[in-house]
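#onboarding

Welcome to the new folks! Below is a worked example of what a typical request in this channel looks like: someone posts a single protein sequence, and someone else replies with the predicted structure as tokens. Don't worry about understanding the tokens yet, we'll cover that in week two.

Example request:
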Amino acid sequence: MSKIVKKLYKIVNETVFPPKCLVCRSFIDPPQSEENGYSSAVDLSLNIQSQVERLFAKYLCWNCIGGLVVVESPLCSCCGLPFESRQGIDHRCGDCSASPKKFRIARAPLVYEQIFTEVIHCYKYKGKIQLARPLAELLLTAFKLFWDKDSIDVVVPVPLHLKRLRKRGFNQVYLLIRNWQTIAGQVDLDLSDLQIERDVIVRNVSTVPQTGLGRRQRAANIKEAFELVDEAKIIDKRILLVDDVYTTGATADECACLLLHHGAAHVDVLSLARAV
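Example response:
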């Protein structure tokens, strides 16, 4: 009986308050569980494009979903920047050749363009915490695509300063990775050996937001803004540093420098979006 009541409630609720696209606010018709070939079950075998279509069908109209841009080769073999030309193979970009990064590689599933920018802003600033689950699955899909699960020992989120954490109420990056092991377990992907460490790094300087700053300003703004709390957790460990957006790489490089200085074996970077 409870299932029938829940189904009726959902029908009435969607009739009175039909869902709207989070980006363009047009009405959408969310897919039903097993109808029309849709399944809400976790599936990490999908490619990024198929995963995007599955994960965001409940939140975005098809027009906006179609506007999300997947990061594809050819791209920089270090920082993951997709090249404007769609021909050729992966190679280092001019910036990474001229100014080598402290981390080994950085990867992201989507380009930081207008539509995905709004999705991330809805999640971070507009209280749409329900996006944490699909964004977490998207990140985990990217992790599975770009890394062997046994090539990383510790996953570390880029931290927020305590002042900003209190204002926002949550670290948006930590929410994306805290349930990776549970999600992976639903598809028999064993990540039990993967340590997810929230408090290895703290942000000890309340910097101004990086948005709007140039490359040099970003590097200067973030310099020495982080501090290592527990060295024992990262010594000789292969670290995956996770952030929401990779723009110039200043934050990732500063964190990587700190981790390597205190004994990390190497640092890789995974973010939701890559600015171009």
